[in-house]
Amino acid sequence: MRILHTSDWHLGRSFHRVSLLDAQAAYLDHLVRTVREHAVDVVVVAGDVYDRAVPPLAAVQLFDDALHRLAAAGVPTVMISGNHDSARRLGVGAGLIARAGIHLRTDPGACATPVVLHDAQGDVAFYGLPYLEPALVRDSLGAPRTSHEAVLTAAMDQVRADLAARPDGTRSVVLAHAFVAGGEPSDSERDITVGGVAAVPAGVFAGVDYVALGHLHGCQTVTERVRYSGSPLAYSFSEHTHRKTMWLIDLGPGGEVAAERVDCPVPRPLVRLRGHLGTLLEDPALERHRESWVEATLTDPARPDEPMARLTERFPHTLSLVFDPERSPQDPSASYAQRLEGRDDHQVAEDFVAHVRGGNGPSAQERTVLRAVFDDVRVSDGADEVSR
């Protein structure tokens, strides 16, 4: 069975205030062509279909058009909700849509109810694990702890139990939206940390033939059977080195996996430039970046006059301007942003406590309280998005 694995469409997202709807439409055109040209048997979409819980109308129309085209091609599609999606909204009408071969899996309680498809070698069971917010699904899944590893393990235990009851030779594919250890994140993924821990071990998914992951935006192989497709477009300058692709997976009769990357169209290259403003404006070697989306980091000791206007004369698509003056780390004028670079919200809060206490940081008990507060706020925001 030939599977096209994609994820993280983030329909409706912009890039530094530049609309990406045309680029997303071009990607979906490419996806449908790939399905036809490569004789794909099933498309899997591993979450974050939309960029936010209440997407703009243009993004909904783009999604609706894509579903109609996939259904018209006669190719089944299995799709899960991600942490950016509203599971309830995405799942509306799932029962009716399934009649057209579009299978939406957004209910955590249905993790062990697969979409069963067939080829010449027999059955393939596709299990959809939507994004599982630990605090919201722990009880329904019977997980022993409120953590990503615990709820995913509980869901996978149900998957393995269902698979064990199926006829011998039934092959299996799991779709999941999670941060799996060994994956490399970028700046454009929303934090899903719980209790200071975001990643789960790949061993959680043991016992299935292929795991189609979503959430991380770089295409990558965790193991031969556990892969991220990544996002089809770059959504932050941290992705400027990414090769945006989808996975074309051939699942053999005994569960063998052969994988090939299919490139996605690039609307405009990304580049990060760094140096003094004069150098960026005058260096002839940089002319090749004239049509790229540019993030420029200026290292001039003093802020130059009208830097953005001057940069856009040479690089019309400059979208981001960062100032990082050449100073020693001991320089008292080092910026607040520099002092916070690489530190998460928990660390910033702990640093603040130490600052107001004259250098005495929080105790172990206070650290636990701080983490619980941050987790509660994040869970509350997620629950609000689901209910809106």
From TrEMBL:
CDD domains reported for this sequence: MPP_Mre11_N (cd00840)
Top-level taxon in the UniProt lineage: Bacteria
Domain Calcineurin-like phosphoesterase: 1-218
Protein's recorded name: Nuclease SbcCD subunit D
Keyword annotations: DNA recombination, DNA replication, Endonuclease, Exonuclease, Hydrolase, Nuclease
UniProt-listed PANTHER family: COMPONENT OF ATP-DEPENDENT DSDNA EXONUCLEASE, NUCLEASE SBCCD SUBUNIT D
Biological classification of the source: Bacteria, Bacillati, Actinomycetota, Actinomycetes, Kitasatosporales
Subunit text: Heterodimer of SbcC and SbcD.
GO MF: exonuclease activity
Domain Nuclease SbcCD subunit D C-terminal intervals: 267-355
Gene3D superfamilies on file: 3.60.21.10
Recorded family membership: Belongs to the SbcD family.
InterPro entries (alphabetical): Calcineurin-like_PHP, DNA_Repair-Maintenance_Comp, Metallo-depent_PP-like, Mre11_N, SbcD, SbcD_C
Main function: SbcCD cleaves DNA hairpin structures. These structures can inhibit DNA replication and are intermediates in certain DNA recombination reactions. The complex acts as a 3'->5' double strand exonuclease that can open hairpins. It also has a 5' single-strand endonuclease activity.
